[in-house]
Amino acid sequence: MFAATSATGTSAGSGAMVGEAARAAALLVGDRVIDGAELADLARARAAGLPDPLDGRCLVHVRFERTLDALISYLAVLEAGHVALLLPPTGADEVVATYPGDFSTERGGFVATAYRGRPTHLLHPDLAVLLSTSGSTGSPKLVRLSKDNLRANAEGIVAALGLTARDRGITALPFFYCYGLSVLHAHLLAGASLVLHDGSSVSDDFWDVVAQRGVTNVALVPHSAGWLLDNEVLERDLPALRLLTQAGGRLTPDSVRELALAARRRGCRLQVMYGQTESTARIAVASPQDTLQSPDGVGRPINGTTARIDTSVPEANLPGAGELVVAGRSIMLGYAEHPDDLALGRMISELRTGDLATIDADGMVRIVGRRRDFVKIMGLRVDLGRVEAALGEAGFEAVVTGDDAGLRVLVAPGRNRDVTRASKARRAAARAAGVGPAVVEAAVAPLPMLANGKVDRLGADALVRAAVADACTDTRGRMDGVGADVTVPHVAAVLGDVLAVDSLDPDRSFVEQGGDSLTHVPASARLTRLVGDLPRDWHHRPIRELVAAASPRRPGVEAATLLRAVAVLLICFSHTRVIDAAGGAHILLAIAGWNAARFGFSLPTRERRLRATARSIIGIWLPTAAAALAGMILTARYGWQNVFLVNWLFGGLEDTRVELWFVDSLVACLLVTTALLAIPRFSRLRDVDPYRFFLPLAAVALVPRFVAHAISDIPAGGVPYTVFWIFAAGAALGCARTTARRLGALAVVGVGVATYFPDPQRNLTIFLGVVVLAFVREVRLPARIVPLVVLLASASLYIYVFQFQLFQIVPRWEPGPVPGALRSLTALVGGCLLWRLADPAVARLRNLLPVEPHRKD
């Protein structure tokens, strides 16, 4: 197939999988090394166990494990000129029953199943491989691929990735999956070697093999890419690694950029790819430069493939957007939905992908959505019409709607009053869609009709939503409990409640939909209770990925959350002189910078960063203004300067008005950094490598800190320009993914804090707090303590701004620690209560400023 060779028993033109181009290739299987010539001999010898294709081409079921035996059998089928139906090691019973094989693989060769001297099926001469479609909805729908499809796609991949005989890959993905199969084909065509490994790529053992066997390139999917970043795999000694590829689902632009930067520091490159089984594997591949400059793109069409945008589809409501339509030698012959379809030749000249996209002047493809007749649930593209047809065959008159969060099924009442009708339809729809029942919602009601006599699909969808919402009213309070049936709608409901919005887009992240440092703590705590431990970058992942990305729950909290709680305790008990451990507010300022870099400042455009900053300031200003107004009216403790957060400019720095200095400084730091990021040069630098923006900013910010301390007696904590460096250093830590970078940020903190206060203990407290922020990701705590820590961290702003007024509730009847402790506890309890009461209203007010500007269709 990959070279014009022939072998005994092979019809002319059928081709051999292992030809001249592949003879330099090698397989590494344990300690065994198999060169291309030996691999060709093994495939040819096994092919002899199949009938001569001149007597009729046979369908062979290949249970494609990542083993040498299965690989030889696959190559043997192609070498012999027959057709391989690729199957997982187990399962796929409906496909097997629909397309009975003449032969199936067994260890060491083939066994006849339906073959009785002549083939069971009439197979088209061009047909070579059958794969389950990415659009399969549980029915036996297959993609028909030709030898030319396989070769053309492999050629395009080799050219786009620059694979040569010096490269060595590893089998990180299943062969029955088109991405994994394309890795095999591309390496054979390039004459490269391949390590045959059956382990998971999200394990240390896998990466030990990568290091030991000199692997130069590894194929990633979103889950393995996230694991690689979380575990800092690229910081290990991987001397030969030069290339990472990523496909199989969407990574957020921030994740693409982070992975590309980590790869560049490793001395290798990242190339993002896009494709479908219907296009053999790859449609587009991004260059290494594209992953940094256009991380939201999926690349340019590979050699031999052309792409266009059909803007006439009704879902095309963005400028330049439409359905992505591709053509070329890689495009499948067509689908097979019945055994008779195996006799068909080419039935399509273009592939309508079902994806909405744009193509810019440079040919860069960007996926912006999907057409409504398909939904994609946990990576599986589901045809709603096919599910509806399957329900009809099962005896249900039903309307199927849905989105990427799940399916919704409205079932007409049956003749008998069957109270289990909705449950039965739900399970039937799940089977037809190939998904779990947990992502299917069903209700029984008469189907709504339009005036023209057609079913009102929007009305049916609304009826299911309403019915499910009513049924869940009594259990809504228990949704945060960990359960086996947690679904994307559950996760979206929790985050929507935290953000005070009615609905969220499951294909967008928490940050993209308004999440920030003010909402991060309650959101992460509630999600952990719902789905288990979250990945480090959960706030940047699409909501739908959080169900699968979480791991079994262990009691604990993020180190930053614990630090916020501890810092506010230090602040309260220091202010009442119960303990001598000042420095908590400066730790909070470092945490604020750390969070800002991970949330608002991580957004991809200047306008969105500005909106995120404005939303954060609204959330900070409202409780602060309320506290300042109350203090101004009741006790004259504060003034108008405090209400508008400008006391450092127009107020006093030595009386009670300086008590809110932290909030003044935090808002000023947010505004200054946002303004700097509005400058194109700085914005581009942040987009390429945020650490290289924030660390120099922190270093430069040390200048006013030292100048101010040298020329005046201004209190160190009283003005933003003497504390901006710690905010910027915290932001640098939020972007640091390596130990060296964390140490670089800590060096700035060390220089800034060493002589910051006359009290060395206070300076040491601040420094140790930032060290914990830098190096400790999570802290395990007794389960009973976790809710208290989360509450204190969530309410920390309210505790801080109201503490001095709440102190006054407890009279000072005697000197000593007891009254001080009572005053501190009063401030803590009062601040938490105020947060509980006010935060929902504050969240709704913040939402008056949308996360993104409204776009006109």
From TrEMBL:
Domain of life: Bacteria
Start and end residues of each AMP-dependent synthetase/ligase domain: 124-335
Keyword Aminoacyl-tRNA synthetase belongs to the record: no
Species annotation: Calidifontibacter indicus
InterPro entries: ACP-like_sf (IPR036736), AMP-dep_synth/lig_dom (IPR000873), ANL_N_sf (IPR042099), ATP-dep_AMP-bd_enzyme (IPR050237)
GO terms of molecular function: ligase activity
Residue spans crossing the bilayer: 578-597, 618-640, 660-679, 691-712, 718-736, 743-758, 788-809
Pfam families according to UniProt: AMP-binding (PF00501)
UniProtKB keywords: Ligase, Membrane, Transmembrane, Transmembrane helix
Name of the protein in question: Acyl-CoA synthetase (AMP-forming)/AMP-acid ligase II
